[in-house]
Request: fold
Amino acid sequence: MEVDSMKVIFFAFLLIQAASLNFSSVGYAKNPCTDDYNKYCEGTEGKPKQRRTCVKEKILDRPGVLKTLSAECQQFRAEMKDLRQDCSDEIAKYCSVKDRKPGENLIQCLDRRLPEKSDDDCEKDVRQALNLIKKANQGAR
Reply:
């Protein structure tokens, strides 16, 4: 029974941490790439499909532009690459796009589902990504 109460306490802690983040009107925390992406994809805030298309076409498909992104954004992108690799089983099992709640991004989904079962590397990557997001949001307050 003590293990179940620890899970409840851990989950409550995660909810408090998530609530402390500064969420935008569409339910996403500002991440370390938000300002960089806004520079190249003005007018796509709150429009996830248009945003992804713009980021791909104007940033990801242009190596020269990738090099101009802020150090924080580059660090976050590297962390997300590690997360997607280390959490591939968890993503497939719990957090594919169809498994997420409306407005929930990948990190939020993994954070919500991790207490169920997680690989240590995956949990470490999610915590690091959350810390980078929290840091990005501290400057936005």
